Amino acid sequence: MLKQRISVSPPAETDCLEVADKYAQAFQSLFLKYLQFETEELSVKVNKDPSDRITDIFFYYPVVDDEVKCYSDLKNIFVELCTDEYAEELLNSALYRDFNNALYKADSEKGTAAKAAFGCYINGCALDGNKMTVDFINIGADNKNFDIGEEIYDRYPAHDMHFNMTLVWKNEMWLISDCGGGYEDIIGYKYRPDITESMKQ
Does this model's pTM top 0.85? Predict the structure, then answer.
């Protein structure tokens, strides 16, 4: 039996911007469903009854969901979009873990400053072998291209700020391996595909 040949390099005709936008939107959806800081707004529900919580550095509360019953169920969702290592990093940072083969989540003490930002968009992409680096701009208050509006947004940050998402080509597909070392919430709350699209024109 002949083994199927797996390409170690992405297709030559790869449209990097199209791929980057698709993955940014998919990551945003995943973030809002499972990683955002407001526990009440997650797609999975957390039982906040104090009598059901487990204390281990943090207060962990049981996740109540028909589809996601344990950590491995949740990780399987993430590895469809992210590398195994990055999926672990994200879920550990969001304070998910198993107790007695059941999924629990602790309250996050992180803030939600990113929700007050105007938005971020993809500025460009660079392909190097099996790695794609995606340059994002988090729009600052002094950007002249947008009417940010002080009464709506906290105008955060003061200036345009660049950060990168990294994707790797693995097993015939792209996987996110990094979101700039801490900018997950900026993409999660404020990625603007409409601005990315407008910047192409």
Answer: yes
